[in-house]
Amino acid sequence: MDEKVTFSLNKNILSKVDQMIDGKKIKSRNEALEKMILRTVNRENIKTAFILAGGKGTRMRPFTYELPKPLIPVQGRPLLQHILDLLRKYEIRDIIISTGYMCDKIKEYFGNGSKFGLDITYIEEKE
């Protein structure tokens, strides 16, 4: 059950809170503040993400004959990029990607992660 809390905010902070309100995902100051607080609290808990991206994607054939499954486009961007965008949104910046099948293509696309605001390390599975 939620509890009511009342406090005062500096106008600059309140302006940033108001900028978060988009009418869709965040509809009110209350939701915006809750999201900001959760980001701060959760930041301490998770610092690194480990992503398994080494499979051959056999059930996605014929697409995976030329592209590894993590690079298959979904709404114009690779599937793995959607995942990385969510991790960055929640301020998880250190990413370890375990690759295998067509790992060079994944490494070529994402590199060290700097162009996505991340620090990506790769572990290559041999089998």
* Fold-level CATH name of the largest domain: Spore Coat Polysaccharide Biosynthesis Protein SpsA, Chain A
Order of strands in the sheet with most strands:
1-4-5
CATH architecture of the largest domain: Alpha-Beta Complex
Strand content: 15-25%
Oligomeric state of the chains in view: single chain
Helix content: 25-40%
Helix and strand string, N-terminal first?
HHEEEHEHE
Structural classification:
alpha/beta
The gross shape turns out to be elongated
Which helices and strands appear, and what pairs or packs with what?
Elements: H1 11-20, H2 29-43, E1 48-53, E2 73-74, E3 77-78, H3 79-89, E4 94-99, H4 103-110, E5 119-124
Parallel strand pairs: 1-4, 4-5
Antiparallel strand pairs: 2-3
Structure description:
The mean pLDDT is 85. This protein folds into 2 domains: 11-42, no CATH class; 46-124, Spore Coat Polysaccharide Biosynthesis Protein SpsA, Chain A (Alpha-Beta Complex). The longest helix has 15 residues, at 29-43. The strands form 2 sheets. Strands 1-4-5 form a 3-stranded parallel β-sheet, with helices on one face. A two-stranded antiparallel sheet has the order 2-3. It is built from 4 helices and 5 strands, in the order ααβββαβαβ. It has helices at 11-20, 29-43, 79-89, 103-110, and strands spanning 48-53, 73-74, 77-78, 94-99, 119-124. With 127 residues, it is α/β, with parallel strands linked by helices. The radius of gyration is 19 Å and the shape is elongated.
For the structure shown, list the relevant keywords.
5 strands; 4 helices; 2 domains; Spore Coat Polysaccharide Biosynthesis Protein SpsA, Chain A; alpha/beta; 127 residues
